Amino acid sequence: MSWLDRLKTGLTRSTAKLGDSLAGLATGNVPLDDARLDEIEEALIGADLGPAVAGRIRARLADAKFARGIDAPGLKAAVAAEVTAVMAAVAKPLAVTAFPRPHVILVVGVNGSGKTTTIAKLARRFTEQDYTVMLAAGDTFRAAAIAQLKIWAERIGVPVVSGEQGADAPGLAFEAVKAAREAGTDVLIIDTAGRLQNKAGLMDELAKMRRVIQKLSPAAPHDTVLVLDATTGQNALNQIEVFRDVAKITGLVMTKLDGSARGGVLVAAAEKFNLPIHAIGVGEGMDDLRPFEAADFGAALVGN
Ligand SMILES: Nc1nc2c(ncn2[C@@H]2O[C@H](COP(=O)(O)OP(=O)(O)OP(=O)(O)O)[C@@H](O)[C@H]2O)c(=O)[nH]1
């Protein structure tokens, strides 16, 4: 299956929700009036695109004065175009740019968001691009997180720096940067704990991790990526706010777009926070994380 097919299949539930309601709101030959524009705006908000984008799409449609009405393909295309415009501004694949190496990527997010799997998928993509990769099991809070990252590392064939459960995470990150530098590794991806229950503790730990890493590499971490679970819907927006405060995030990855009818929330996130979107996950397989493409996403979201 091509990536586009995967994306479309993955987004089916979001697509069905938005595409069906738009199709139901097309007017055929009847002029698009205010009442119908209101309904379209509500459908867009209902599909999690957020009030700002929904309002703008409504205004666009009102300006275009569809006096002769608008059919379902026309309405979907108009929505897709606006979604694409919003998303094109933030689509930005992760790039390995740091000199000297390693390029350090800190991966943050709440437990269960798909962090570990995303790290594995990213590692795999980088190795496919002939970069050397090292992982660091920086979520030292949970033994399962350490074990899982080690399993992935072994499967992909990349080294992993890990410690015991409860080990000092900033210290481990320091060791990892040192090891990656000594080995001449291109990319170091560091997992972190995701305990939002203790915001102050998490903030301290992530801040300390940054300070410690910067002793060895002043520009690191070069990326701080927040992994979001699409199935949490609007809660993803709250998570961005919290992690922006605690972790200085520089970009987003959204996982589980395949299992969710809430894919539209990525549009709301793009509009509200203007953070780069690096990749989206549309399945549990290693190939199910791909760089984010705005036009594909816009079309897939409305079912085109
Ligand atoms: N369907 C689907 N499942 C995914 C995707 N990404 C991750 N998962 C699954 O989500 C679950 C949680 O993923 P993890 O990578 O373990 O999440 P985590 O944030 O590291 O979670 P902890 O290790 O529990 O902190 C796993 O069962 C993954 O297989 C995705 O894009 N689609």
From TrEMBL:
Gene3D superfamilies in the cross-refs: P-loop containing nucleotide triphosphate hydrolases (3.40.50.300), Signal recognition particle SRP54, nucleotide-binding domain (1.20.120.140)
Domain spans labelled Signal recognition particle SRP54 helical bundle: 7-87
A Gene Ontology cellular-component term: cytoplasm
GO molecular function, one term: signal recognition particle binding
Substrates-to-products reaction catalysed: GTP + H2O = GDP + phosphate + H(+)
SRP54-type proteins GTP-binding domain span: 102-303
Enzyme Commission number(s) of this protein: 3.6.5.4
AAA+ ATPase domain segment(s): 101-259
Binding residue positions for GTP: 109-116, 191-195, 255-258
Gene Ontology biological process terms, A to Z: SRP-dependent cotranslational protein targeting to membrane
Pfam families membership: SRP54, SRP54_N
UniProt keyword Amino-acid biosynthesis, yes or no: no
Enzyme class, broadest EC rank: hydrolase
Keyword entries, A-Z: Cell membrane, Cytoplasm, GTP-binding, Hydrolase, Membrane, Nucleotide-binding, Receptor
Membrane topology annotation: Peripheral membrane protein
Subcellular location: Cell inner membrane; Cell membrane; Cytoplasm
NCBIfam families: ftsY
Subunit-level organization: Part of the signal recognition particle protein translocation system, which is composed of SRP and FtsY. SRP is a ribonucleoprotein composed of Ffh and a 4.5S RNA molecule.
Similarity annotation: Belongs to the GTP-binding SRP family. FtsY subfamily.
HAMAP family in alphabetical order: FtsY
Name of the molecule in the record: Signal recognition particle receptor FtsY
Gene: ftsY
